[in-house]
């Protein structure tokens, strides 16, 4: 349910979709066409030094378009949705004051929802509960989460104990499902989803993984550890950082790492799609011409 008249709100463009769908390149094309600037909504691109593994846009790829919320903090600093919302609101204000269009682009659905509709009620850490939950395996935590908050369980990284524990903490303390139930609309957002069929996306994920390994992704992970990022912290970042760090420690072979990582990325893309598909406001488009037409009509028609 929405409870604010969207006609009075700042217009923004939101580009979403699963990893490797082509969101970044589309956002830059649209920023050039509609005089916009891009705000990254990616929970790992906020960290300095995590470039290849997160697919962080390069200066060359930006083509002169200003980007926000990249390289915000060191990997040893905790960064959460609340901090993202604070900096995201500030960036939107800065962009609109220049007379430009704010374009939110990313695949971290929870952060995007938090920016557009506000965060769910804050739940203070329960250290006793966390201590008990820490003793459980990721599989056991996921089973518990499925019982108390099935929707959140569908969209969470099943191997990330820290996130599983936090989701359980919120669900158990509030006795409510973790996702937002009441939406306070902050912006007049046009949401566009980048549509890819499953086989196309799998192929793009495969090719991108090979390209990133050639770029030196394993070296990037090794350098992060050398510069003081613990193996546990790298594991918490998931996907590329988790499996490459396990390979570097000798826990798995390079072949195993590549197989496990590609499978995990495909599973992540599936979870992203599940999250975004529940939002009926997203316009799923696979044609740039139709995308441009929709933006003109929705954001620029008087």
UniProtKB/TrEMBL annotation:
Its cofactor is Mg(2+). Keywords: ATP-binding, Magnesium, Nucleotide-binding, Transferase, tRNA processing. Substrate binds at residues 19-24. ATP binds at residues 17-24. One of its GO terms (molecular function) is ATP binding. The keyword ATP-binding applies. Pfam families: IPPT. It is an enzyme of class 2 (transferase). Its EC number is 2.5.1.75. The record marks 108, 130 as: Interaction with substrate tRNA. It comes from the Bacteria. Transmembrane segments: none annotated. The keyword ATP-binding applies. It catalyses: adenosine(37) in tRNA + dimethylallyl diphosphate = N(6)-dimethylallyladenosine(37) in tRNA + diphosphate. GO terms for biological process: tRNA modification. Residues 42-45 are annotated as: Interaction with substrate tRNA. HAMAP family: IPP_trans. Catalyzes the transfer of a dimethylallyl group onto the adenine at position 37 in tRNAs that read codons beginning with uridine, leading to the formation of N6-(dimethylallyl)adenosine (i(6)A). Belongs to the IPP transferase family. Monomer. This is tRNA dimethylallyltransferase. It comes from Candidatus Buchananbacteria bacterium RBG_13_39_9. The gene is miaA.
